[in-house]
Amino acid sequence: MSLSPSLEPNPEAVRIAEKLLKENRRQKLLNRGLSLSMPFLLLLLWELLARLGWIDTRFFAAPTQIAVTFWTLAANGQLLSDVAISLTRIVVGFAFGAVPGLLVGILMGQSVLVRYLLNPLIAAIYPIPKIAILPLILFIFGFGEASKYAIIAIGVFFIVAVNTMTGAMGVPAIYLDVGKEFGAKRLAVFRTIVIPAALPVIFAGIKLAWGTALLLVVAAEFVGAKSGIGYMIWSSWQVFSIEQMFVGLFVIALLGFITLLLLDELEAKLLPWRNHV
């Protein structure tokens, strides 16, 4: 007679696990459906109010009018060109700001000396509205692409650095002690303990920084560009082309919406132990 315990799965436990998985998937689909439906419900309400004459369509063009303009701009290639230019500026500026921000944030979170050296500088510069230093950036870098990259990188750097530092400082001491007990080297501690433990806060910082990058690229293109979504919005306002102005605003909102969804998916893949909405 064998004394080893049976390895056969318990049918009742399997049934409960499958039921929980199905319920979890259904809840995720419901949450995602609610998230996606809200913008469309808002547009429907807007269209209704415009058709009923309850809002002034000289300032708030109906969504169907905006859609026609959107299609015209997309068909002649102007919209895609402006989106590509703005996205390139955002991605390059974001990379220039986020990578140093991550490195500095981790160093500040783990080294008291680095924190004492850099914290006063960051505390003094971080609250300055980055749009306020745009004239200085234009003086230094001119009206070319470098000024757009610079203003976005500066705005992104501080948000990522502060959030990363907060996340790195919040790593429970017991995690670090366990790593040391197992003989982990400093680099291994960073890679396997500090960064994974700080990732939730780092991701929150990256999402905030991405939203700030969208804001800053529009501001920079208002005054220092002849292309991009910000320039399209500004030039539309100058000639009172309300539909085209709203197209630019919708495109910025859509870019923010899609990229945040993608970041949520990436976060869910990298942090499967967290509950995601």
Shape: flat
Radius of gyration computed on alpha carbons: 25 Å
Q: In terms of per-residue confidence, which ranges show pLDDT below 50 for 5 or more consecutive residues? A: none
Instruction: Output mean pLDDT.
Output: 85
Distance between the termini: 51 Å
Pairing-aware structural class of the strands and helices? mainly alpha
How many helices does DSSP assign?
10
Q: Which percent band covers the strand fraction?
A: under 5%
The helix/strand order is HHHHHHHHHH
Beta-strand segment tally:
0
Fraction in helix: over 70%
Largest sheet properties: none
Descriptive account of the structure:
The chain is mainly alpha-helical. Helices cover 80% and strands 0% of the residues. It contains 10 helices and no strands. The chain has helices at residues 11-51, 63-75, 78-110, 112-125, 134-141, 145-169, 173-181, 186-224, 229-238, 242-270. Helix 8 (186-224) runs parallel beside helix 9. The model has no long low-confidence stretch (mean pLDDT 85).
